[in-house]
Amino acid sequence: MTQRWIRALTALLVGGGIVAWLLLPVRFAVERPRLGIPAVVAPGETFSIVVRGSVPFWSGVEKAEIVSSAPIDTQNARAPRQRHVLVLTGLRLTGVHADIKAVVPAGVPDGPYDLVVSGRQRIVVRPRSLFVQKSFPDRFSLAQMADLPELTTDDGVRRLNAIVDEINVVNPEAVLLTGDLAYGGAWHSYDRLVRALLRLRAPVIAAPGNHEYEGWAGYLSYFGSPYHAVDLGKLRILSLNSGHGRDQLTQSQFRWLRDNLPPAGSGLTVIQIHHPPFPERSFRVNDLAFAALASERGVPLVLHGHWHADGVFDGQGRRREDTTAFPGTHFAVTTAAGRALRRMSETLTSYHGYRIVRIEAGQVVSYTYDVDGDGVRDAAASVPLGMIHVEAPEPGTVRVKNKLNEALPNARVRIAAGADAGPVMSASRGTVAEVIELGETRFFEVVVDIPARSEVVISLLPAQLAEQP
Question: Which of 20, 160, 206, 412 lies at a C-alpha separation of 20 to 30 Å from 2?
Fold first, then answer.
């Protein structure tokens, strides 16, 4: 009798579980791509959509599409949106996780897209998480910054938006955020941070710092996994978390790094991790093993923050403020973009800034700045903030002031057209790359080379009046 009741109860529980599994709504979250872990793909290329579901071995995803997006303007208006349905070609289930293979259809224009994933009674949107790019340039730049302004005040928000405006003019292929992004961890700080970052044209690749642990749930909610890999053409960006357990690189992360770091000579890889491994204000677990692995695998550059000051080390932990021409891995610490500065060297100037990494033919060719203007890049210096200004003296015209001691190749500026401007215009300098409709105003995005220490005026012209290249 007892055995019969046990079998009946077991059958009831199993049957009820099956019914619930089939009929109850399946909730899921898109873990990647997303802001902070974007996908950069070409039309016809396959990429992964990683989903975490509420039911094991069932993704719940029925459809995925991308919707064109543009940087949000001050009125939160957006450009007209185009939708493209992704082709789902494969599915791998592991517990509550699903790796869905998706293909961007041929003919999808280049640009940033919001990913929209839908299933039964569920729609998840990841803004500006996928970037379509038919081909990757042989010569390009990355912008990297850390230790952002505190966003609990309106002044901090203003300063962050000014940084975003400056980075948009520099026009990098990606923006690396190397930790301490939202001090205090309040949800409204993360909300303000994300609203500013969505104004960046380039993909945002994020890594946490120690201050993210003041509001860890907020970081995970907005940016997802604290360590990950993002491919930009043939360049791989590996992002790590050194804030865990107060300044350490965990053993599980180190194993992941060892598995995902390509062997020497097999391609270009750049790593970002908030703490440097040497010796002051560094992480303390797996520090020497990390440095040795980076050198062994031929990583040319590892980017850091945390110091609120610039600095560069070689693979033996020696400070290199004498030259950038030393062999092996370069460990570059970047000054704060907004937080209080620290004096970590008697020979380096302190200022708020960011780092521009220039890459050519699969090689890092520079990551420092010529502070004194003598024609030689300083050994550790980052780019000082506030040296690039864009003014609009009248509709259809902008004036760009570049006070930096280096040129800005392929800079990008936005020009608001006058009331009499047509839908097709050219520029007095540079090339019109994109036309964006925001409400009643038409904007022309112009790509132009800005010389060092110069002031350049760019005006919109009817196409037939533009200067010939």
Answer: 20
Q: What are the structural domains of the chain?
A: 28-132 (2.60.40), 139-384 (3.60.21.10), 388-465 (2.60.40.1180)
Burial profile 120-140: b = 16 or more Cβ within 10 angstroms, e = fewer: eebebebbbbbbbbeeeeeeb
Tell whether the model's pLDDT for residue 185 goes beyond 80: yes
For residue 95, the model assigns a pLDDT of 87
Q: Is the dihedral of CA 72, 75, 80, 86 positive or negative?
A: positive
Q: What is the pLDDT of residues 53-63, one digit of tens each?
A: 887 877 788 99
Model confidence at 247, pLDDT cuts 50, 70, 90, reads low
The β-bridge relationship of strands 397-402 and 388-394 is antiparallel
User: Tell me, what DSSP letter sits at residue 183?
Assistant: T
**132, 41 contact by CB (below 8 A):** yes
Round to whole Å and give the CA distance between 268 and 390. Answer: 34
The answer to whether residues 211 and 241 touch, using CB atoms and an 8 Å cutoff, is no
- DSSP-assigned letters across all residues of 202-255: S-EEEE--GGGGGGHHHHHHHH--SSEEEEETTEEEEE---BBTTTB--HHHHH
pTM (whole model) above 0.90:
yes
What pLDDT score was predicted for residue 250?
A: 87
CB 65 within 8 A of CB 86: yes
At which residue do the structure tokens 């060892």 appear?
A: 258
Where are the alpha helices (H) located in 224-352, listed in sequence order? 251-260, 287-296
Distance, in Å, from the CA atom of 414 to the CA atom of 179, rounded to the nearest integer, reads 29
- C-alpha to C-alpha distances, 49 to 105, 203, 329, nearest whole angstrom: 15, 17, 33
Confidence of residue 440 (pLDDT cuts 50, 70, 90): confident
